[in-house]
Amino acid sequence: MKKKIEILAPAKDLIGGIAAINSGADAVYIGAPQFGARSNATNSIEDVAELVKYAHLFHAQVFVVINTILYDNELETCRQMIWKLYDVGVDALIVQDMAIMEMDLPPIVLHASTQANNRDTDKIKFLKDVGMKRVVLARELNLHQIKEISEASDVELEFFVTGALCVSFSGNCYMSVANGERSANRGSCAQNCRLPYNLIDGHGDTLIKNSHLLSIKDFDVSDQIPNLVEAGVISFKIEGRLKDIVYVKNNVSYLRQKLDSFLEGSDKYTKASSGKCTYLFDSALDKSFNRGYTDYFVNERYQSIGSWESPKSKGQYIGKLIKTIGGAYQIENGELLNNGDGLCFINENNEAEGIYVNKAENGLAYPNVLKEIKDGTFIYRNNDAAFIKIVEREDSAVRKISTTLLLTENENGFELIATDEDGYVSIVKLDFAKDVTKNNLSIEDNIKTQLAKTGFTPYTADEIDIMFTQNWFLPISKVNEMRRTVYEQLSEIRLANYKREEHQLEKTSHPYPETKLDFMYNVSNKKARQFYERHGVTEIEKAFELQWDPGKSRVMTTKYCIKYELEKCPKYHKDTMETKLKEPLVLKQGELEYKLKFNCKPCEMEIWEKDAEFEIEED
């Protein structure tokens, strides 16, 4: 049996979810009324139910994100919400808080969110053994590590493929709490990593001014799909529950086409849902919001991943500025530009600036404000007006399920049989007098033309056969009525036959790989504590949010490294580095101040508040 490979798309809301399905997603993940890590992307149970119905028609799945940490007074509300989600047909929940594993749950499938910091083979095997059907892997893993995890446990593996990156290990960033009591683990990340900072060394000298030193590029490992599948990944996740519909449709359609070309002719893998998509636009990742792209650590650490000039979208590279002529810019490939485009460039102070194109004509761009730009500056388009206009159209991405139609006769009249690509059959019978046509002429071609008009249904009639013993007359109105009914019925049959996987949790007591848990395990309620104690943990620190020590705390752990970005890494730049940096390095932004600690053995960087004390590791 072929293994199903899935594209998993974000849905900010019902409309976004439907657009993702129409663009080719095999599954979507969406927020519920509460407890999702994007507090600005919540949805009613009714909207989730509507999305479930639409997705299941294509045998696509709907996952609901419940990936915040919970407080004691929220546990019962969360449990009740889970039951409601189960009742409306949701396929799985994506969870962070282990309290959910202690609840009285319906037999709903559970996935371990990336916020559970899934990068250790033993812990992932533990999660599988405790009842998780799927684990969303940490983005920091490389191909070798993913393969190792896959071989150690037969749990389903999900991995991000495109979108924004959290600079911190997911679930282990506490900057928002420390700076304003907004918790990322509670759905309210303040994005402190996207702020500009000064970098100050141990002598007090400012090495870099006003640069976005914690802002990193966006993720794109779409060209690694074959390698990731071979390593064990079955689901490719697009980041972006807060992104607009153009971003979702562009990313999904791009990956759909990329994955389909890989799956074509494969004897091992197949797509995970039904239907085929057609598009009115040519998708390209650089046409959506992006800060430039990186494959992060999938192929080990080998390139710079920082996006220091700006945390905003850079967009698509157009060309260099040739010169400024009067009130316009002459740009290489300027003929690609349209009225209403947004352009971006990096000025001489290494800062991102933007302009708006009032008019694009004869290769010249006339901006809303004529800024002084140096000849030779790289110009990017971060708002493609013509592309957005096409993609926003409802018919720009259409998904249809293939069917064959057979119109034949019976004793009392006629019957129409629709068979879809998954083998489901719908039959409509029409009691109608069988009379031969005028002049005994065949009207088969007319009937076929009407049967082919599938219009706004989710079906195409790819093959139409008519089997009559004589040239029977059948009014066009009756043909249309039969076609409408057979497809309405087929949708009902597909939904009735959709098989949701179910899994009833059974409490186990096999040991957790650790016996002591620090605050980074995010234990914020009594049920999570019970869960870990049942699995042999003896010491459990409270979550950061419940015990923050102002000014002295570690607020982030990351695989990203500022020393590496500056080519001052004692491991990678040993032979080319002329001088070492005097530590501790400090990030400063107004009143905010952080110390950087470099752990070279695991190749990680920690960020601490200004009053923290720690030993500096010797190179």
TrEMBL record:
| Gene Ontology terms describing biological process | proteolysis
Keyword flag Hydrolase: yes
Question: Which keywords does UniProt give here?
Answer: Hydrolase, Protease
Q: One Pfam family for this entry, by name?
A: Peptidase_U32
List, for all copies, the residue spans of the domain called Peptidase U32 collagenase. 379-494
Q: What Gene Ontology terms describe what this protein does at the molecular function level?
A: peptidase activity
Q: What's the name of the protein?
A: Putative protease
Give the organism the record lists: Flavobacterium aquicola
User: What are the top taxonomic ranks of the organism?
Assistant: Bacteria, Pseudomonadati, Bacteroidota, Flavobacteriia, Flavobacteriales
